[in-house]
Amino acid sequence: MTSPDAANGTDKQSKSLMAQRFRGFLPVVVDVETGGFNPDTDALLEIAMVTLRMDDDGYLHPDQTLAANVHPFDGANLEQEALDFTGIDPFDPERDAEFEIDVFSSMFQVIRREIKHYGCNRAVLVGHNAHFDHSFLKAAVDRCDIKRDPFHPFSSFDTASIAAIALGQTVLAKSCITAGIDFDNSAAHSAAYDTWKTAELFCFIVNRYKDLGGWPLAIEPGVETPDE
Questions:
Q1: Can 189 be counted among the known catalytic residues?
Q2: What is this structure's pTM?
Q3: Set 71, 117, 152, 189: catalytic member
Q4: How many whole angstroms separate alpha carbon 55 and alpha carbon 58?
Q5: pLDDT exceeds 50 at position 5
């Protein structure tokens, strides 16, 4: 008869390194550009997601970029100050914008496939000041009445908070520069660019923590860890 401890050990070994590292969550980096600060009333104008891969040594790397320009939803508010900041013209025909339902249906299909590939339970949003990006994503999901949202409904990984601890910086550009990651300020405030740089920053911090001996955790003999 197999003991519970032996069974748990076998189960852990069968999980991918990604699933082991983040407790069954798959980190997916997300950034949005919007027509304001209120996710319920203001337009979502750009969204990008970057998937991550983990190599055989347990190091994390940015992988695939999913990006789209988005049509403002019917009745969406557009704050001129926000448009001036991002430089986005929502009605420029050359944006090749897509409707929210089409954007999320396509992106979520890829994310669900990645979740299955790594044997994870669901995705968790990684963002710089993640609450902002998560709130706009959730508002769009609700508007589109999407039933199979692969992201955790409220948990997220905030690189602004993580960078404050690891690098002493909270601004994305300064955090990247401190980490030795190139950052072009003229390209910033594009969802695709900011998402990729956030992904590089997140991977740098996770990998640096690993190199410093922080992962896997060295548990002293006789110390029990909770079964999650």
A1: yes
A2: 0.89
A3: 189
A4: 5
A5: no
